[in-house]
């Protein structure tokens, strides 16, 4: 959980509960309103949960690795800026698990950074108007050539390319 206040470096252990920078297997939580966080070293995490508005500036790549049936849960506005990349990737050999982006009602996920992924895709869920937030991708990646979403039995929404 981010405890670094309104601004700081992702890579500074003093900015995280427990005094350590999140590892690849960990969930990152933002609940400090209007936190502005810079990612200054190549970083891999399990997923992000935004419970308060936050802005990430990616000076180095941020990798979010899907572990299957895990969701990046956006409950407040989250903006992800470049100049580096936001990378969504599958973990392992699954050909069906995609990165689940849960953007809740009233929240917006805006990705202005370059979006990449290895053997990946994004699922957007909008079941029962519960995950009916707004998705904005300013740099449509080649891995998602057209706005589309897939959610099995769940209803789905297509992301909006800015």
Query: How many helices?
Result: 0
Strands, total number: 16
- What percent strand? 35-45%
- Please estimate the helix content: under 10%
Write a short abstract of this structure.
By secondary structure, the protein is mostly beta strands. Helices cover about 0% and strands about 40% of the residues. It has strands at about 5-10, 25-30, 35-40, 45, 45-50, 55-60, 60-65, 70-75, 80, 85-90, 100-105, 110, 115, 120-125, 135, 160.
Model description:
The protein is mainly beta and 162 residues long. It is 0% helix and 40% strand. The protein is built from no helices and 16 strands. The strands form three sheets. A seven-stranded parallel beta sheet has the order 1-3-6-9-12-15-16, with no helix packed on it. The chain has a five-stranded parallel beta sheet with strand order 2-5-8-11-14, with no helix packed on it. A four-stranded parallel beta sheet has the order 4-7-10-13, with no helix packed on it. The chain is globular, with a radius of gyration of 15 Å. Residues 143-162 have low confidence and may be disordered.
Topology at a glance:
Elements: E1 7-9, E2 27-30, E3 35-39, E4 43-45, E5 47-50, E6 54-58, E7 62-66, E8 71-74, E9 78-81, E10 85-90, E11 99-103, E12 108-111, E13 114-116, E14 122-124, E15 134-137, E16 160-161
Parallel strand pairs: 1-3, 2-5, 3-6, 4-7, 5-8, 6-9, 7-10, 8-11, 9-12, 10-13, 11-14, 12-15, 15-16
């Amino acid at each position: 959980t981010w405890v670094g206040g309104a601004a700081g470096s992702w890579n500074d252990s003093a900015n995280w509960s427990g005094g350590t920078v999140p590892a690849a297997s960990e969930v990152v939580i933002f609940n400090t309103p209007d936190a502005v966080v810079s990612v200054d070293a190549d970083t891999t995490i399990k997923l992000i949960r935004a419970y308060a508005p936050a802005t990430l500036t990616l000076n180095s790549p941020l990798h979010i690795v899907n572990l299957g049936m895990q969701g990046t849960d956006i409950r407040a506005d989250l903006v992800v800026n470049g100049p580096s990349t936001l990378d969504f990737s599958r973990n392992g050999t699954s050909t069906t698990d995609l990165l689940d982006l849960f953007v809740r009602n009233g929240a917006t996920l805006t990705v202005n950074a370059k979006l990449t992924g290895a053997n990946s895709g994004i699922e957007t869920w909008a079941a029962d108007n519960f995950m009916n937030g707004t998705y904005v991708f300013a740099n449509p990646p080649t891995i998602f050539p057209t706005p589309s979403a897939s959610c099995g039995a769940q209803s789905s929404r297509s992301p909006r390319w800015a």
